Amino acid sequence: MGGKIDGYFDCTSPYSYFAFVYLRKHRELLRQYGVEFEIHPVFLGGINVGSGNKPPWTLPAKATLGTYELKRAIKYFQTEQLSPAPFFPILSVVPQRAMIAVKDRHSNEKFEQVFLETWRYSFVTHVNIEKPEGLADLLSKFLDEAEVKEILRLVKTQEYKDKLTAKTNEALKQGAFGAPWFKVTNSKGEVEPFFGSDRFHFMWEFLGVEHEDLKIVDKREGKAKL
Fold it and tell me: What is the mean pLDDT of the chain?
């Protein structure tokens, strides 16, 4: 029993957000099985280019289905109402570098809180965090003025350009073609990839996490109880 989930997320991907919310909701239950998870910011644009994939909104059929899928996911994961902003999609390079800098310099809980807020800004309040002023406004909700300035400085450095590139390439080497992407290691040291926010039942099987799979309720059982 035990294992680790490494998740590779980008703030332009609402399904990364749904998976993030779900994992945090179940963190303590997962710890009962010795399973931890770690979130890694990556550049989804780089993953798409590197894998030869195309964003779903660029394909008319996927874009049409996506309007239904987004509503369904919001209901299932019980999140705030998300909707694409007029400026969607943003070039997420700088915000993702900023998330790596926050992760390097602060506690994991602080990092996760800040990273979660990127989706609220992009899909709820519709503030463009690709712009320096938008990103600064987001960071200032969690960090003091001096730290915000330092994060905004760091995102321009070669160090953090390289760090984001390295994490993105790390996911690509695993076979990633989108986000959320997961590298999951079980208690035997076996590693398997998982993609998307709707594969957790497969993940739990691989990790040995006891769970109840989706099942249709037998109405006769309810009548018998009466």
Answer: 95
Torsion of CA 199, 205, 211, 214, to 10 degrees: 50
Q: Which of 13, 16, 122, 197 is catalytic?
A: 13
Give the three-state DSSP class for 185.
Answer: strand
- pTM greater than 0.90 (yes/no): yes
Write down how long the chain is: 226
Strand partners, 184: 5, 192
Q: Which residue has the tokens 């007029």?
A: 86
The residue extents of the domains of the chain are: 3-207
Distance CA 123, CA 79 (A): 11
Residue with tokens 């992760």: 103
Q: Say whether 13 is catalytic.
A: yes
Distance in angstroms (rounded) separating the CA atoms of residues 95 and 134: 10
